[in-house]
Design a protein that fits this description.
Elements: H1 22-57
Length: 59
């Protein structure tokens, strides 16, 4: 663990939940699906980048 991390305070997260249905709910669901795909692509790219840098560090 990085030495500075042990001094950091725990992460606090606040969720706001709003329920919608009908056309607004469908639009929101499509938007959320698009955003989740973007997040998953970002995570996959970071893993590839980190894996590639780890591979070059050991050579």
């Amino acid at each position: 663990m990085h030495p500075e991390r042990s001094r950091l305070q725990p992460l606090t997260v606040t969720w706001e939940i709003e329920t919608v249905d009908g056309e607004e709910g469908e639009t929101l669901a499509r938007h959320q699906a698009e955003v989740m795909l973007e997040v998953l692509a970002w995570i996959a790219e970071r893993r590839r980048t980190q894996s590639a840098s780890a591979d070059t560090d050991t050579e």
